[in-house]
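Colleagues,

For the teaching module next term, I've prepared a clean inverse folding example: a structure given as tokens, and then the sequence designed for it. I'd like students to try predicting residues themselves before seeing the answer, so please don't circulate the second half yet.
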């Protein structure tokens, strides 16, 4: 048997219950997020899947996490390291911001990170196997996924909550420690 938890009355003022946005506003927000996601996909494809024949002899696959990042940081010029690391972080931020709005079931951090890692892994696999002058780099996947985490923490979590209804009650199962308190509160 599943029951909803009834909280006992307290002296604290009740928090204003968040009302979901009107359906039209939510649909418009989802449409805008979808359009931005498509635009981002186009930019991502142009940045990562464009052949680079001039660098074909310089490319090598990286399957060891941290190897490319160390190589970037060991370079004498800080600009290249910032460009490579920062660029890969920034490529993931839109996932963390837009996925919770576009896909309501993927609002949680683990789902956003898993989806980002999967998409970026596919991009890297395509890069390494299909595109001249490009190589698979696991550090790119890790940095992109970290960027999604940053995007989710800064904005995606809040946008996802604002656009989609949240759970209003907590469900508990019979035998839960709070059952006795809940039953006593129901009798009042």
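(Answer key — instructors only)
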């Amino acid at each position: 048997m599943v029951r909803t938890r009834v909280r006992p009355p307290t002296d604290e003022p009740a928090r204003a219950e968040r009302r979901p946005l009107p359906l039209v506003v939510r649909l418009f927000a989802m449409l805008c997020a979808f359009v931005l996601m498509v635009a981002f996909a186009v930019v991502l494809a142009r940045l990562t899947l464009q052949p680079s024949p001039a660098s074909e002899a310089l490319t090598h696959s990286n399957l060891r996490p941290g190897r490319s990042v160390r190589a970037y940081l060991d370079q004498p010029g800080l600009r290249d390291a910032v460009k490579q690391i920062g660029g890969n972080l920034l490529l993931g931020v839109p996932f963390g911001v837009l996925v919770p709005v576009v896909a309501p079931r993927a609002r949680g951090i683990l789902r956003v990170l898993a989806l980002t890692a999967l998409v970026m892994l596919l991009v890297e696999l395509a890069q390494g196997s299909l595109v001249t002058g490009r190589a698979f780099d696991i550090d790119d996947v890790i940095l992109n996924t970290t960027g999604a985490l940053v995007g989710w923490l800064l904005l995606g979590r809040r946008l996802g909550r604002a656009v989609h209804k949240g759970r209003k009650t907590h469900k508990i199962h019979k035998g839960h420690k709070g059952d006795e308190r809940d039953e006593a509160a129901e009798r009042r």
